[in-house]
Amino acid sequence: MLYAIFCYSREDVVGAWTSAEDAAVMTRLAIVEQKLAVTGRLGPVVRLLPTTTAVTLRKGRETLVIDGPFAETREQLLGFYVVDCEGLEQAIDAARELAMANPGTGAYEIRPIGLYRPVAVRGLPGGAMKRFGA
Amino acid sequence: MSEMASMGGAGMDGAWIDAALTAARPQAVAALLRYFRDLDTAEEAFQDACLRALKAWPKNGPPRDPTAWLILVGRNAALDGVRKRSKSAPLPSEELISDLDDAEAALADRLDGEHYRDDVLRLLFICCHPDLPATQQVAVALRIVSGLSVRQIARAFLVSEAAMEQRITRAKARIGAGDVPFDTPGPLERAERLSAVAAMVYLIFNEGYSASGEAVQAKGSLCDEAIRLARLLLRLFQGEPEVMGLTALLLLQHARAPARFDAAGAVVLLEDQDRGLWNRRMITEGLALIDKAVRHRRPGPYLVQAAIAAEHARAERAQDTSWARIDLLYGDLEQLAPSPVVSLNRAVAVSKVAGPEAALAMIEPLASRLSGYFHFFGLKGGLLLQLGRREEARAAFDQAIALANTTAEAAHIRLHLDRLMQDGAAAEK
Which ipTM was obtained for this model? Predict the structure, then answer.
């Protein structure tokens, strides 16, 4: 079974870390990631840019793009995509197409990715690794 | 980072508490200012709350909403003090109210509203008191909003702690004597406050960015502070393209910090910088913010400056820089915020696009207004040198050295002069 683990924390607190503290946390996390990676259990790893960089596309009869992250509590997180785009406009276009394919209510938050590691370690034999593709 | 926070102790808990107190400070002090309508009381209440947090959090674990906890405890502590002085019944101690979850949740709800936004804006805005000179605005904001210690601020401004203490006390007295605007601002007032506050955040950044030599270490953190404040403003005013532009500008400029000075502390010009040292994450964030801001189709001065910085950030090598686009952007900036310094900067782009002669013609009319400006003579000397007018170039460089603000600036011009002398000597042989 594949699982996604979403990381929630206080952005203002993380933003108040010194770069040394930030690096220390990333190093500690990397050790855990490495452990998962060598047993073939680690999929893509993503660190998002701050919510200040986000825009949100609201579904509806007409889609509406608003500045800022998704901030409602009525809807739940159901999935996510990682898309490689020229810029924000192209990413919004992609989200619009998704909205057309799945109309109704809800929203897509579009947030740039600051750090992306596809799959840390490949080539270990075993079924788990194959799930992530070659 | 704050002096309170530095008492947080070692280890992961200590670091987390430090960061939480630092992050909470602007919001918490701003809310306490609204309750007490007095800056000193608000600051003391926050300080009190921090001391209690340092005792309670390691024991009970961090609260779900540290900011709400600090506001509530700070408010109670200050009210308790008032009651004690008036000899009435004190409020229960924080031991008895250690489970603040319900109260926190209720308060957090109220914090999310417009109130909260205007609180923080007000706190920043009172630091922009028009009677205060720019450097004092910056010092007061760093003390009150960012919570830097007087010692840290004194070091950044290269003055003694006592002198800085006095300066901040005087500035705060001036703020206290004026009318602190407690009414909820209307849209126009809010926009005016926001623009004054944005300018002050930019001043804080520049104070850090313009440092050189030994001051780089002491002042470097001011750039980080300014970026934190800009991000805070942006979280509160998510749809403001100029706040996006300001944040992007600071990020894109600060991204170059690791490459701006060599090991000996000498200035490394943009075109000579090792671009591999630039901070990629900051650049990505800056570019993403510009992307967002341009969708509003209302470019302001910060956004245009950010777009200029972005042109440099996008060029993998100095020779890949699109000077034609930078020239156009400076043209926009001349319209939006005309100033001789903007025209001078445009002349650099013009010299790359149309040659030194065109650039020289462009800066000649600026001479009277920039007669005390180091960079004017630095650029003039450089352009004259390119045109082979060596004597005039030397005169301009001499003037530049006389006007240099830092030893690094002077040293840089001296390099040009040395080269002129060497070339001159070689030509005579």
Answer: 0.87
